[in-house]
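Let us work through a complete example step by step.
Step 1: write down the sequence.
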Amino acid sequence: MTAESAPQDSIAVGDIRLTFLPDGEAHFSPTLIFPASNEAAWQAYRGLLDNEGRYVTTLGGFLIETGTRKIVVDLGLGDVSLAIPEFVWARGGCLLESLEQAGVSPQEVDTVIYTHMHSDHAGWTTSGEECALTFANARHLVGRGEWEFWRDNPDAAFAPDAESVLSPLAGRIDTASDGQVIAPGVNLRATPGHTPGHQSVIISSGSARAVILGDVLHCPAQIVEPEWSVPGDVDPDLAHRTRDRLLAELEGSETIVGCGHFPGAVFGRVLHGVGKRSWQLG
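Step 2: predict the structure and record it as tokens.
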């Protein structure tokens, strides 16, 4: 059985509704997207590969509904496709359809949170030939240092598009701080390394808890192989330390983890294993 991108899915976190919004998929050479890996190591993770041996990556974002608030976390790749021979092919375009299936219009979204601004997380910042903000009524938030990094490094790998992302957001983007409360039960945590201002989203209601990790994790294999970094890590050592710290916190807890790049299903838990951690869906 070969891997497929994850479908739309919703879970309850106490009184808060959390929905994954698919936008598309990407298929990578596994040893190029994870340079520390090798073909022999991937034999243990064959279920994460497609029938051509490429690692399947889901693309999309999340919708948080709490009280009257409607918050979108990350904006997918956008209505584009791309191919880099021997490395990746990817396509997006479904996020707004996924949002509609969740019963929400772009006009109802009051806040957009970027875990970070890589191009596969900022693709629906704008839409149409005029590059108008897709979520025109929303406050747009990034972590400390994120906006400045991409403003000053527009040609860096996986940078957000200047015309359709950076320019339209100028004057509309706000910087969030570590621990900032966005809505009752929704707050931010700085998780730098993948990018300077990378942040994760903590969701709490009663005794229930979930976390949207962003790109702290790209693949279930990293739960067992946390040293597997990706080429997009701006600071690989810091990204590794952040990943280790969060996995140690999550291991064996009841916290639901949302990993928007995982194939098959994006929600799960990190379990204690015999000598190693494991991933349990749902």
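Step 3: interpret the result. The chain has six helices and 18 strands.
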